[in-house]
């Protein structure tokens, strides 16, 4: 089953950031065992463009639409047997310590 893993910042990171694993090691291990299909880091929110159609008119906004201190900074597409496996992958990600991870199953 495929899961989209959103990697997000958080206003309340773990108080012991030294406990976080190395991101390069996390990526290499997930790539090697086939759990990570692809992933990337996003440009900063200031580079975002929001696209909307209202009353047939195209509306463009610079930056993210939502005003929030927490932002999505990257993603990984996972291939896992089930949610339990996806949670184990997410809990080992460094941003589980300094940010937060959101998992969403993809609908076939």
From TrEMBL:
Q: Matching InterPro entries, A to Z?
A: Dimeric_a/b-barrel (IPR011008), YCII (IPR005545)
Which stretches make up the YCII-related domain? 1-107
Against Pfam families, the record matches this protein to:
YCII (PF03795)
What family, per the record?
Answer: Belongs to the YciI family.
Protein name in the entry: YCII-related domain-containing protein
